[in-house]
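Request: Give me one sample?
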Amino acid sequence: MKVIVLQVRFGGNLMELRGKTVLLTGGAVRVGARIAHAFAERGARVLIHALRHREEAVKLAENLPGSGHVALPALDLASPDAGKRLFAAALAAAGSVDVLVSNASCYRLTGPDAAERYHSVNFAAPLELTVAFAEQKRSGVVIFVLDQVVLQKEPPADDYTRSRVRLREAIPELALKLAAFNVRVSGVAPGPMIPPEGLEDSRMLKTLAMVPLHRRVEPDDLASAVCFLAGNESITGAVLAVDCGQHLGK
């Protein structure tokens, strides 16, 4: 029997990631580290921001494939002008930034300042970073790592969710405004993936039973989705669900 092998090549407008500089917030551990690896494996230079995992950020920068990776200062994104100061640090390290990935977030906070911190870290800082990115007046792409909760028809009315939904709602307007600079703005909305730190024995198994694919999202799948959005030059204003179908039941 003769075996015929078909080779299919997909074309389209794809931005070459090799040689590009990526600013990644919350990039030292867990999913952030996988995103850093994914870009580095594609030949990009990664500038890694982390707050509580500075040592891990330094080690990651030293061990990523390729060269030129940098661990940026451990700026608290809830502090005044944190986005501006972090972007300035990125420019000092690399001269320019081609891809901004806002992955840092906070969750499960308590206390009187929780709502303010959710707003600052999950909404205000990513916007401030995006403005600084646009002020370069050069083409590029901004990607927000969100949460599948933003795709729910009736999301919970808590401070964490409100901060995430506000950022998701800002994407279309940002995409329209920054298109003039050939800057694309999109987001990814991951489903259940890795239990939060300290909650490894959480209700994740119960949640997975209600997900159409009945399994968690693999971190590498999310990382490849982020790289896909970075590379596809025809996508802007979109939010890509990477949730094993969880949004379909909401």
Summary: Residues 22 and 46 are 5 Å apart (CA to CA). Residues 1-11 have pLDDT under 50 and may be disordered. Helices lie at 30-41, 54-63, 82-94, 114-134, 159-178, 204-208, 219-231. The two ends are 49 Å apart (CA to CA).
